[in-house]
Amino acid sequence: YLGEYLDIHCGGVDNKFPHHTNEIAQIESYVGHNWCKYWFHVEHLNVASGKMSKSEGNFLTIEKLIEQGYSPMIYKFFCLQSHYRKPLLYSVEGMNSAKSAYNKLVKRISEIDNEGVLDKTIFVEYNNNFKNALSNDLNSSMALTILFDVLKANTNGKTKRELIKSFDSVLNLNLLN
Predict the structure, then answer these.
(1) Whether the Cβ atoms of residue 43 and residue 85 lie closer than 8 Å to each other
(2) Buried (b) or exposed (e) across 110-145, using 16+ Cβ within 10 A?
(3) What's residue 113's pLDDT?
(4) Mean pLDDT across the stretch 119-139?
């Protein structure tokens, strides 16, 4: 389903061994080559009472999120605001804040005109900053900060939109739709 090559594969910190070892053995024996470039473990998604888990009956599904009024993009934005090595606390307040911030971000981006000529110097500078943030232990919260910096940058709309398009090819938050 995912294809013969994958960039990143993750699992929960409680599955360090044998999760990835088994995944590697299974898929690479099937495809006959290295399947994934990067393997890492993420901290838990928590609720006020502790770790979110199936056994506790307090886990999320996309269907549950949608029923609660949150799109998958809002949940993704919520998660990207934190670092994968830090536990993330799921709450209605946190999701409402993410929903509000995401909607404001998309609205603000939609108001950027596509005028001007691409400023290659600024494009390279911000694109490098974005790549550096993600290269620093997948620092997605810093990458989002760079996105917000672009919105405030002293440059034309064309350059801003091209940067946002570049960033969104990684973030996949549907920022320009």
Answers:
(1) yes
(2) eebeeeeeebeebbeebbebbeebbeeebbbebbbe
(3) 96
(4) 97
